[in-house]
Amino acid sequence: MPRYGCGYPRGSDLSDDLIMTTANKVTATLDAVVVGAGFSGLYMLHRLRGIGLATRVFEAGSGVGGTWFWNRYPGARVDIESQEYAYSFSPELEEEWRWSERYASQAELLKYVNHVADRFDLRRDVQLDTRVTGAAFDEATNRWTVTTDRGDVVSARFCIMATGCLSVPKDIDIAGAARFKGATYRTSRWPHEGVDFTGMTVAVIGTGSSGIQSIPEIAKQAKHVTVFQRTPNFSLPAQNHAADAAKFADWKKNRHAYRAHARSQGFGVLIIDQHERNLADFTPSQRRQEMERRWKTGGFALGGSFADLVTNESANDEAADFVRERIREIVKNPAVADTLSPTNHPLFTKRPCVDTGYYDTFNRSNVSLVDLTKTPIETITETGVKTTGANYDVDAIVYAIGFDAMTGALNAIDIRGRRGETLKAKWSGGPKTYLGLMVAGFPNLFMVTGPGSPSVLSNMMLSIEQHVDWITACLAYLGDRQLGVIEATQAAENDWVAHGNEVAATTLYPRANSWYMGANVPGKPRVFLPYIGGVPMYREKIEHVAANGYEGFALATV
Ligand code: NAP
């Protein structure tokens, strides 16, 4: 039973008249609605229950797990070490769960999140197969009316968007895609029953993390795979292996210390272990040794080699050369190695990929690479892919072309704040938030890992828990004081947006045509979407804001 300990005027205590002013067929009256039942939505539900709020979660998928429910393509796995990419809020959960690999596969992550949903009895408040289509703030009642594609009309005091940063697939922006008569797949909407490519010729379009993880696996099955590459990406070897029992025991014993250390790191990821000194502080042979050591460690380790990797062009060039050398070492055909070597953006300014056997896959006789910078795709035909250079007839096309990142899921919902202003209109020049948590003009609407927060530039689990904990504490604070409205002030939002842009401009990130910059989606404003000031600086800021009575927010009674 929910415990209404927090002092909010309960939804059911409101007069029907009051509710009818916002909608004429309210089907439920709640304290909070959470949109999305991925890792963030589920934890949000758990915490809101803990402070006694009547909450419902709406989830478009037919199961919980968000990213790990949808992205079932072959080779899908996390690129943060499993024990770190796990909830920390429950010592019992940590104690009982065993990861089988250093980097858990999608299947294992999905099993984990389902285990969490059962263990904390979360499912009874999660409505699956239901897409939230609208959320409108009523200034008379200070409540949100949330509508869904299933006809729900829910009145809630608070609305929390746990919609994910990479959850809306980018539209297929390639001419003729609908004409293809063979099988079409998207990595982000992979069939649940899996796909058997045995004996098939396959085109894979896209060489971001999803392409780079799936290509080696598809190549093991298919008769032939043709990879269509527009921009080569830097990819780092995962060095994945079975989970190490000794390491797990050590983690269990020292997890508080490990997590505290992660929180002190710029990206919130232990393996990055950011060096405090710049590249120029080392001799050439020391630099090389450091990079080699980190390459062997695997995953994102290389990213911490020197303090100035993403701020100093020449330091970045040297590290990028190191990766290009590794590519030439692995790929036997020098022309193919060349095509796979990124040269048009600094290292790490596009999300680095973490792979298992990606470059080596191009040594297989059944894999070929098409450089779209030389011969762009003209159109998809009934039988395959036509570039300016050739026709490639295939049995199947796999699109690994990415997402409308960070703003796509929010803009897909008709969100209306004060005076009916839509979030989409407010964000037409790029997202504007205060701390990536709230938006001026949209009271009581929270985002988990929203634009303007470290989110995708950190271990997502760390940032998810941080935001959920912060939102929970904030709502408890309001409840304890009989307050029912919180809204970012315009001034605080302006300052935060300006600060975020200033920090991004001190780095090399804006140089790349990345999804961090919105550059992958035609027509999307070119704005750096996450916050690059670092996890510790961000944590300090949001903790300071809370400790000072939610500085930068206007609080009011209902
Ligand atoms: P992505 O990084 O945006 O990569 C999309 C790829 O498709 C790029 O190579 C892009 O080329 C290409 N592309 C897009 N439109 C195209 C077009 N019209 N014609 C030809 N090529 C086109 O997307 P993603 O691979 O799905 O990864 C997105 C993010 O999800 C990752 O960066 C990561 O944060 C997360 N992710 C993580 C993991 C993991 O390891 N845990 C796995 C998958 C995804 P351009 O670069 O030229 O635009």
Q: How would you sum up this structure, described in words?
A:
The two termini are 25 Å apart. Strands 1, 2, 3, 4, 5, 6, 17 and 18 form an 8-stranded mixed sheet that branches. Among the domains are: 16-64 and 122-168 and 405-551, 3-Layer(bba) Sandwich (FAD/NAD(P)-binding domain); 170-233 and 352-402, FAD/NAD(P)-binding domain. With 558 residues, it is of the alpha/beta class. Helix 2 (39-50) packs parallel to helix 14 (460-480), helix 9 packs antiparallel against helix 10 and helix 14 runs parallel beside helix 16. The protein contains 16 helices and 20 strands. It has helices at 16-20, 39-50, 67-70, 91-96, 106-119, 209-221, 245-263, 284-297, 313-330, 334-340, 358-361, 408-411, 423-426, 460-480, 490-505, 535-547, and strands spanning 28-35, 55-58, 126-127, 132-138, 143-148, 153-161, 183-186, 201-205, 224-229, 235-237, 353-355, 367-371, 377-380, 384-387, 391-393, 396-399, 414-416, 445-447, 485-488, 553-556. The structure holds NADP nicotinamide-adenine-dinucleotide phosphate (NAP). NADP nicotinamide-adenine-dinucleotide phosphate binds at residues 78-79, 166, 173-174, 205-211, 213, 230-231, 351, 354, 372, 377, 400-403, 456, 515, 520. NADP nicotinamide-adenine-dinucleotide phosphate (NAP) binds at residues 78-79, 166, 173-174, 205-211, 213, 230-231, 351, 354, 372, 377, 400-403, 456, 515, 520.
